[in-house]
Amino acid sequence: MHIADLFIAKSYRDAFAEQGYVVLPLLKKEEVDALLHFYNQIEKSAGVAKPFYTSIWSDDKTHRQSVNDSVNAILFPAVQRHLVKTKPVFANFMVKERGEDSALLPHQDWSFVEEPMFDSATVWCPLGDVNKTNGNLQVIPGSHLLNNYKRARFSDAPFREIEKTELKKLLVDIPMKAGEAIILNSRMIHASPNNASNKQRVVASVVLAPQQAPLFHWEYEQGDANPLTKKYSIKDDFFYAYSCYETLSDLIPIETKSFAEKLLTLEELKKTIGYNSVERKLKRVLSHFFTQPVV
User: Fold this and answer.
1) Contact, 54 vs 92, CB < 8 A?
2) Helices 61-79 and 29-42 meet at what angle, rounded to 10?
3) pLDDT tens digit sequence for 215-254
4) Thinking of the domain 3-287, which architecture would CATH place it in?
5) pLDDT (tens digit, 9 = 90+) per residue, 19-71?
6) Dihedral (C-alpha) 248, 234, 79, 66: value to the nearest 10 degrees?
């Protein structure tokens, strides 16, 4: 079962399956206002002094749980207007402060389910209008077709040798209005530029998985001789019980395997996403005029 199969509208199913993301209207104005009000109430308790951060980076478990519960209570029912048979994995805020050093390098999200049997997605919903100036999301259409199915805590991106140079040229900006959302496959390569505006950029987010998919988490460990990945079966409270940077020494893995990394070249990435095909070239041209994927 895959997220693409769970969209109610066929146009979204087709776009998500091919491009790896869709943009859609998600929140009503009163829902946006409610999330902003809650964010303003709890912002200082995050205790994270960084140009960019998400709620799960906070060392305060009470803060992480409060954000998860309150954001999920508004965002997930809105998601259910567009998708069926999904469940929330965790919800959080993503905050980009004003100024330099707030850019987020190209990356993929962790694995949350056993891929490719299942997959997962992130719902990224700005609470104010976003564009390239204040840090809109950027994506590489088709990059969800990459086959690195085990994306672990503490592991580096397989495209890290090109992430600051050639890869950035493949990114497409996704400007959006407040309350719109981009829903993107967890394997999608995405990034965001610096916030050069005079305001914070605040995004509400929830990760989705198919209802029937068991949840797992993978952790990378250098090891004495060879790198390892440890697989954990996790409970619903995992992502607020542990911060993003904690080691999982008190948990027992259900599986430990050697990790044989293969770095991704620009040519391999372009081949995977069909970059040089006539169809993909046309879609890149059209993407400058439409934020919704063209299928």
Assistant:
1) yes
2) 180
3) 999 999 886 678 899 999 999 999 999 998 888 989 999 9
4) Sandwich (2.60)
5) 999 999 999 999 999 999 999 999 999 999 999 999 999 999 999 999 999 99
6) -50
**Cβ pair 54, 71 in contact under 8 A:** no
d(CA 56, CA 72): 14
d(CA 117, CA 292): 27
Structure tokens at 29: 């104005």
Cis peptide leading into residue 175 (ω within 30°): no
**Percentage with pLDDT > 70 across the chain:** 93
Closest CA to 179 of 73, 25, 291, 35: 25
Q: What is the C-alpha to C-alpha distance for residues 106 and 164, in angstroms, rounded to an integer?
A: 8
Alpha-carbon torsion 167, 23, 7, 216, what sign? Answer: positive
Which residues 6+ apart lie within 8 Å of 251 measured at CB? 232
Report the alpha-carbon distance of residue 61 to residue 56 in Å, rounded: 9
158 and 224 Cβ atoms separated by less than 8 Å? no
Six-digit token string for 117: 């049997």
